[in-house]
């Protein structure tokens, strides 16, 4: 009976084991038949080693499609330590080609890992080094596709564009601002290895193609940027300021046309520069007292409330105004005497603006200043924008009200000032500034997203803006902005000479010189602001230092914008020391003895008594003392001078 029970138990166990074995076989068969592909995929994932193939980051373009930043396909070095047959020899070979320490390479290639990048020495290597390594055919050493960020114009627009890190991720500027849009999905080369790191030839390599990032098109106009960059380089060379900046905007839209910070840096080699240089985009980051450029804000506010007739009403500038026991002086000893309010603006009379501030009153002054955008960020699509510093209304007394009226005691950024000035001359509309025009497909160049002008608010009335355009043109024709005057173009603007403050104390002989301008004043196409921090020269006025630079820029920018010259501009007021401008007569066809014009020098070239050509041609405007070359010949020959 006991034997029967044992036999029965053995049978049950046998049947159970058989069932379990059958289930296992069934499961294996089922998985092999129905889940074969999934199992193989998982197995390959365990066997395969991934070699990253970098995608191409999107390009940054100017408004006309010119490349400002783009990716260049490059090569990087990776190793599979298990495949390296002679670590010492391989380390020496790699060290010789990559020009690095052999011991460091040896430590890298002998790590107990499946794959290993050699970085930074093996990242983005030169083509000739890649060819050398390819010819060596070192076991376990692989060359993989990578991408190198390139800025073809070097320091041009550097702080705006920013730069990328070793893994091509945005670290500053627009590269950081639009990193998620510019970034590309990486691909991979997947090679199957066995447990010892040897290739499994039974299975094929697989390849995942890398992606491409979207292109970012800017509102920057490279032609205007080139002109402004050139002139700021000249400024730095001549006056050696601590820093300088420039900002150009389309006043009708808020589009940024040019943006310059000096000193600058080369984004291709940003590691070679101090972080204070590459992290500070001065037109949006730097905050300082604006000085007299701010008077355009105060003046337009008072005009908007009709607090005076700028042509008829007058103010007597005796050289100072007393405010709360403080003596606020005019820059001109003894003052400017009796002036219309337009002349108060032209002469940049501080006492006159104290009076304008009084007429405005604290509530109105504060309301207009904040409505123009001071004390808050403009919202420009760039990282690192400052807010500036504005008094809280309840903290403003009689003295603070007076000093704010002429641009002292508050701190503004260049972008705030340019945005406000644009509203003053564009009809009164405050726009949000922007530097990105569109996001585009990198292959088809189709527009994915287009940015449009954003109106914030109407700050002053259109009639006020019309008056301000005349007033600011008058400043350039008759006031401190005369060095920016250009024959045939209606230029308007306001200069500024602001004493620098440090830790609440004004520095002696340390000034920020600036000028804000617009043209043409009959239909403004551009606002241009230039400032220099502590230039090393004896003439400490914005008009005398920055005015000529504004003029040089506008002389090239306005023809590029196809602005036609006009005879309908305010005549320039002549003062002692101004250089006389002379329009050259047309002498062609006249006799040699008729080549005479007061204020000009003449040089005769050739034989004969008849003038057959001249350089420059008739109608050209020269400074007094300019030279005209007269080409002589015989009137019956009809000679002409070949062009150079």
Overall pLDDT:
86
Q: The biggest beta sheet, please?
A: 7 strands, mixed
State the helicity in percent bands. Answer: 25-40%
Number of domains: 4
Strand content: 15-25%
Tell me the name of the CATH homologous superfamily of the largest domain.
DD-peptidase/beta-lactamase superfamily
What is the fold-level CATH name, i.e. the topology of the largest domain?
Beta-lactamase
Q: How far apart, in Å, are the first and last alpha carbons? A: 128 Å
- Give the helix tally: 18
| CATH class descriptor of the largest domain | Alpha Beta
Number of strands: 28
CATH architecture of the largest domain: 3-Layer(aba) Sandwich
Contiguous low-pLDDT stretches (5 residues minimum) are 636-644
- Determine Rg (CA atoms, Å): 36 Å
Structural class: alpha+beta
Q: Name the overall outline.
A: elongated
């Amino acid at each position: 009976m006991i034997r029967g029970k044992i036999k029965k138990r053995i049978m049950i166990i046998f049947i159970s084991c058989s069932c379990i074995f059958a289930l296992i076989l069934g499961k294996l068969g089922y998985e092999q038949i129905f889940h074969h592909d999934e199992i193989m995929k998982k197995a390959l994932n365990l066997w395969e080693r991934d070699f990253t193939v970098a995608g191409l980051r999107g390009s940054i373009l100017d408004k006309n499609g010119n490349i400002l930043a783009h990716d260049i396909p490059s090569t990087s070095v990776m190793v599979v330590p298990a495949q390296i047959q002679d670590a010492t020899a391989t380390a020496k070979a790699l060290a010789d080609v990559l020009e690095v320490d052999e011991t460091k390479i040896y430590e890298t290639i002998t790590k107990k890992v499946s794959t290993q990048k050699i970085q930074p020495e093996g990242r983005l290597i030169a083509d000739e080094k890649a060819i050398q390594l390819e010819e060596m055919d070192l076991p376990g050493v692989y060359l993989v596709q990578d991408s190198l960020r390139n800025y073809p114009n070097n320091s041009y627009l550097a702080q705006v564009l920013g730069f990328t890190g070793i893994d091509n991720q945005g670290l500053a500027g627009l590269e950081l601002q639009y990193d998620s849009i510019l970034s590309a999905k990486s691909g991979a080369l997947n090679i199957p290895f066995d447990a010892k790191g040897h290739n499994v030839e039974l299975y094929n390599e697989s390849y995942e193609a890398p992606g491409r990032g979207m292109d970012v098109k800017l509102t920057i106009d490279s032609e205007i940027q080139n002109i402004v960059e050139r002139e700021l380089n000249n400024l730095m060379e001549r006056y050696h300021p601590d820093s300088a900046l420039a900002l150009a905007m389309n006043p009708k839209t808020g589009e940024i046309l040019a943006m310059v910070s000096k000193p600058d840096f080369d984004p291709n080699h940003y590691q070679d520069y101090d972080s204070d240089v590459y992290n500070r985009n001065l037109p949006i980051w730097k905050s300082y007292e604006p000085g007299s450029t701010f008077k355009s804000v105060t003046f337009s506010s008072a005009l908007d409330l009709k607090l005076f007739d700028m042509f008829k009403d007058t103010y007597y500038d005796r050289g100072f105004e007393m405010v709360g026991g403080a003596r606020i002086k005019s820059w001109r000893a003894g003052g400017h005497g009796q002036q219309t309010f337009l002349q108060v603006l032209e002469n940049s009379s501080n006492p006159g603006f104290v009076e304008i501030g009084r007429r405005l009153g604290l509530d109105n002054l504060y309301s207009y200043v904040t409505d123009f955008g001071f004390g808050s960020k403009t919202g420009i699509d760039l990282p690192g924008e400052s807010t500036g510093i504005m008094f809280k209304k309840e903290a403003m007394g009689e003295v603070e009200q007076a000093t704010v009226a002429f641009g002292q005691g508050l701190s503004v950024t260049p972008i705030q000032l340019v945005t406000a000035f644009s509203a003053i001359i564009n009809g009164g509309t405050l726009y949000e500034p922007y530097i990105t025009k569109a996001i585009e497909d990198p292959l088809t160049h189709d527009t994915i997203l287009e940015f449009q002008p954003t109106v914030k608010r109407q700050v002053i009335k259109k009639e006020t803006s019309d008056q301000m355009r005349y007033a600011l043109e008058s400043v350039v024709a008759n006031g401190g902005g005369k060095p920016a005057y250009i024959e045939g173009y209606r230029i308007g603007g306001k200069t500024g000479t602001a004493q620098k403050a440090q830790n609440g104390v004004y520095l002696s002989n340390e000034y920020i010189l600036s000028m804000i301008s617009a043209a043409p004043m009959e239909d403004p196409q551009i606002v241009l602001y230039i400032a220099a921090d502590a230039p090393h020269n004896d003439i400490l006025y914005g008009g005398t230092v920055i005015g000529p630079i504004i003029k040089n820029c506008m002389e090239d920018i306005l023809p590029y914008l196809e602005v036609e010259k006009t005879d309908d501009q305010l005549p320039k007021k002549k003062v002692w020391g101004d250089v006389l401008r002379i329009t050259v007569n047309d002498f062609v066809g006249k006799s040699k003895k008729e080549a005479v014009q007061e204020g000009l020098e003449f040089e005769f070239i050739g034989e004969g008594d008849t003038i057959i050509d001249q350089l420059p041609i008739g109608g050209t405007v020269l400074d007094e003392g300019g030279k005209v070359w007269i080409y002589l010949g015989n009137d019956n020959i009809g000679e002409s001078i070949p062009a150079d």
